[in-house]
Amino acid sequence: MASGYKADVSVEEAWQALSSEPGASLVDVRTSAEWNYVGLPDLSKIDAPLLRLEWQSFPSGEVNQKFAEALDAELKKRGSSRDAPVFFICRSGARSASAAAAMTSVGYSRCYNVAGGFEGRRDEEGHRGTVDGWKAAHLPWVQS
Predict the structure, then answer these.
(1) Partner of 31 for a Cys bridge, out of 9, 58, 70, 137, CB 3.0 to 4.6 A?
(2) 120, 129 contact by CB (below 8 A)
(3) 0.70 exceeded by pTM
(4) How far apart (Å, rounded) are the C-alpha atoms in residues 77 and 92?
């Protein structure tokens, strides 16, 4: 177990599980600003939901104290069980690890952190989205 949750997985492993495991969900814990300006994973071609719930509020950076309660309610509403796989993604993998640990602590047994996140770490020129992460792996994504 990695830091209080099931495991870190690559973006490719997350995509494969989301594509093939019934009941699997992806939770994007970035801020609304990131969703709007940077883009979102696009799961429209597979049978898996993308849930959006901020781990930290924008612009304050304050941790959402109601995160676990709100996500638990949303997952229950969707008929998801506590042993269904839940993948957490953020920009580079730090906030999503915290979110995965939080949900594990309230009884979800298969919480995974998507290592590399949506944009990954910076390249030599200081840009994200080219080295690792969802975008660099050329997985489907959309931008508003």
Answers:
(1) 58
(2) yes
(3) yes
(4) 28
